[in-house]
Automatic annotation (TrEMBL):
GO cellular component: mitochondrial matrix
Domain CAF17 C-terminal: 190-304
A biological-process GO annotation: iron-sulfur cluster assembly
Organism: Schistocephalus solidus (Tapeworm)
Keywords: Mitochondrion, Transit peptide
Pfam families reported for this sequence: Beta-barrel_CAF17_C
Subcellular location: Mitochondrion
Listed PANTHER family: TRANSFERASE CAF17, MITOCHONDRIAL-RELATED (PTHR22602:SF0)
Protein name, UniProt field: Putative transferase CAF17 homolog
Length: 315
């Protein structure tokens, strides 16, 4: 995973420093000290960090052999000893979502296939590209990185951090804690990051992050409403995931507006540009091929009450 790196923070006040910058509770790591590899999922809150590449460490990810499986069902990912001084860290991702991954940190140049128990390598028996990782992540609606989680534009709960156990509502003050907690306890989360199917293949490199998504009346092609229904945050290259080979993306969508559009048979359409090229509701999109039609769907692991009026599988 050349697109992923690690950072290290050390010092007597490192825990206190991070406690004020992340949504989760650093004390959970201390309480997990009995585990072989304690692992915590969290979001940084508007913290600008310069990342230096660790040339002596490789970052790997392992995906289960089927989108409905949990990686922890494999014996090789249970909490047992793996005999190798080249394996610095391994654990299933704390986002315990069926179909999702585990992480490994290896000494640079090491082969993970030679480290894990040879009788149980079915969860990691094929080396795949970063495109497969991205497609699997989008299929599950798991945003990552500054291109998808834009600083100053979105709340942790809109990134599904509450559903993934990434937010502590009891640890006390941190950056943005008051707004995050109030949003949680009022139960009003109007927007969420969720997967979309790109109806016709596009060059993923041409997709501009945060491109507006509009609701178009299917029969006329006219824009419905004065504001975007959402924003397209990423498009993956077309890669087969399980039995599906659609091109997938991830978008921040207004849930109620999206559900109403789907119910009415209207289209979700984006020009793959950050320029608002539809200035008013009277504008008609005469050539849908100038952009892409997007079909949202609810990830398989979401609770049923999050978006009950939206389709719950790939179509």
């Amino acid at each position: 995973m050349n697109h992923r790196q690690i950072i290290g923070i050390s010092g007597v006040t490192a825990t206190e420093f991070l406690q004020g910058l992340i949504t989760n509770d650093m004390n959970l790591l201390a309480s997990s000290s009995t585990k072989k590899n304690p692992f915590l999922y969290s979001l940084f809150l508007n913290a600008k960090v310069e990342i230096w590449k660790a040339d002596d460490i490789d970052v790997w990810s392992a995906l289960p052999d089927h989108p409905s499986h949990l990686l922890t069902e494999k014996k090789s990912w249970s909490e047992k000893e793996v005999s190798s001084d080249k394996l610095l860290f391994y654990a299933a991702d704390p986002r315990a979502v069926p179909g999702w991954s585990g992480r490994m940190l290896l000494q640079a140049g090491s082969d993970p296939f030679q480290i894990f128990h040879p009788s149980d390598q079915s969860s990691m028996d094929t080396e795949a590209s970063a495109d497969l990782y991205t497609s699997a992540r989008y299929r599950l609606g798991l945003p990552e990185g500054s291109r998808e989680l834009k600083s100053g534009d979105g709340l942790p709960l809109e990134a599904n951090a509450d559903l993934l156990g990434a937010v502590s509502f009891s640890k006390g003050c941190y950056v943005g804690q008051e707004l995050t907690t109030r949003t949680h306890f009022t139960g009003v989360i109007r927007r969420r990051m969720m997967p979309v199917v790109v109806a016709s293949p596009v060059d993923a490199s041409c997709a501009v992050p945060n491109a507006p998504i509009y609701r178009l009346v299917a029969t006329t092609g006219k824009r419905q409403g004065k504001r975007p229904i959402g924003w397209l945050r990423g498009v993956a290259r077309r890669t087969a995931v399980g039995s599906h080979d659609q091109q997938l993306g991830i978008a921040l969508l207004r849930l109620a507006d999206t559900a109403d559009a789907v119910k009415s048979g209207d289209l979700l359409w984006s020009r793959l540009s950050t320029i608002d090229s539809l200035p008013d509701e009277a504008t008609e999109v005469k050539h849908l091929e100038d952009g892409v039609i997007l079909r949202p769907f609810v990830p398989s692991w979401w609770p049923k009450d999050i978006a009950p009026d939206l389709p719950s599988n790939l179509q």
